[in-house]
Amino acid sequence: MQQRPHAKVDEIRGRIDHPILDSDAHQLETVPVLLDYLREVGGSDMPDRFMAFLAHQRRTFEMTPAERLDTRTSMPVWWPIPTENTFDRATTQLPGLLYDRLDEFGFDFSIVYPGIGLQVITLPGMADEELRRACARAFNMCYADLFGEFSDRLTPAAVIPMHTPEEAIEELEYAVDVLGLKVAVMAGDVLRPVPRFAREHPELASEVLYEDCFGIDSPYDYDPVWAKCVELGIAPTSHSGPIGWGSRRSVSRHQYNQIGGFAEGGEALLKALWFGGVTRRFPTLNFGFLEGGVGWACSLYTRMIDHWKKRNADAIRSLDPARLDQELFAKLIDEFGHEKIRAYRDPLVENSLWMPSPEALDDWRACEVTSAEELAELFVPRFFFGCEADDRMSAVGFDARLNPFGARLKSMFGSDIGHFDVENMREVLIEAWELMDDELINEDDFADFSFRNAVRLHGGMNPDFFKGTIIEEQAARVLEEDGA
């Protein structure tokens, strides 16, 4: 049922000399098929438990506005998948049809992420451990079976829950070693009860929660998970984001919750990994942050450098209250202070503040960087950022004039086909090319955006990632040129 590509797609493909690698497509799983796998994994009652979970996730639509306000239940997406374009709707659900249409879209290879499967790990996630683990296993078995015959041009992502390191490692090993999957989408955060509140008010423990982003302040050590990723050649990728969670949520408008949600979640995870020293301890581990774009990452990268310069372990000591010239300060208060201020001169001059320990004073201690340049060297090579085709801010990742030290952050093209924001799958590549038409990036940038950076993310962890695919030779050249 393949159709001719749009004329503009032919024009684009005629101008470039590299493949198009879609780093982030989406599927819509067929629920009755999933239930068969879930029954196999978890027993006869597990499908009913899963369907009850899905119904609970959609309970908002049955609540009155007053009930939503009273419980602060956030508004989820109304209709998440393309429907009016029936051909695209079927493409979302049928891997064989997606495979058949790749040339029509102008894509050579596509990494396909879950649809319903994301609900296993993204907020609020599944609190029921037995259900969560059974669902992750069943979804992954289903993906491996349904996409297996299309592996030369499609590869699905495994769902990896992160409630505990042991749970993550167990599913990683099964997904890679048993099922042969090569991509993993992992929770970017997990909701946990606040310990003191859970002890003192156990009946309300599930209501007072915080977000654990694994890198810092976690009750668990996630280093074994990162070590397992390195061992298995897996680049952790995340779609997680606090869409409608935390203190900022709308009970009436999904788009309020949606806009910026993935960026907010990506920033929280990246900061936790960075301040936790994960990039220092695992210098070869790549991380992917999907659907949030790269604009937030450029801002975070710049702000990290600026903050480090003024708040590193040495620089922060200029703020030490002990360095105050008390005699001069007292004199200035006497000379220039209002009488109401002069009345408090002595306590102001003494300025006795709590003094943290030297270790606590250094927020950057786990990063072990001694210069802003070193910070950039640890940040830029290992973090990759998925950008949708219509995101004009993708260009800022390549702006060496704007980004400190001439950095080119690793933006990647992700089609997001299968989600509501793609109105016509035939036009996704055309939207991405508008960055070229508008002279926001050049052809070398576009090659990084639409091919090389995704190769670096996954092939940099697993040199055999693209072996047996139709882009094997081109991907190998990218890795060889990079010295990977």
Brief rundown of the structure:
The protein has about 475 residues and is α/β, with parallel strands linked by helices. The chain folds into 2 domains: about 425 residues, TIM Barrel; about 45 residues, no CATH class.
Topology:
Elements: H1 7-15, E1 21-26, H2 31-42, H3 46-57, H4 65-71, H5 86-93, H6 95-105, E2 109-113, H7 129-147, E3 154-160, H8 165-178, E4 183-186, E5 190-193, H9 195-200, E6 209-212, H10 223-232, E7 236-238, H11 254-258, H12 261-275, H13 278-281, E8 287-289, H14 295-311, H15 326-336, H16 339-342, H17 345-350, H18 358-361, H19 372-379, E9 383-388, E10 410-414, H20 428-437, H21 443-459, H22 472-482
Description of the molecule:
- The protein is α/β, with parallel strands linked by helices.
- It has two domains: 7-310 and 369-482, TIM Barrel, CATH 3.20.20.140; 317-361, no CATH class.
- It has helices at 7-15, 31-42, 46-57, 65-71, 86-93, 95-105, 129-147, 165-178, 195-200, 223-232, 254-258, 261-275, 278-281, 295-311, 326-336, 339-342, 345-350, 358-361, 372-379, 428-437, 443-459, 472-482; strands at 21-26, 109-113, 154-160, 183-186, 190-193, 209-212, 236-238, 287-289, 383-388, 410-414.
- The strands form two sheets. It has an eight-stranded parallel sheet. A two-stranded antiparallel ribbon has the order 5-6.
- Strand 3, helix 8 and strand 4 (183-186) form a beta-alpha-beta unit.
Tags for this entry?
about 475 residues, alpha/beta, TIM Barrel, 2 domains, eight-stranded parallel sheet, two-stranded antiparallel ribbon, about 45% helix, globular
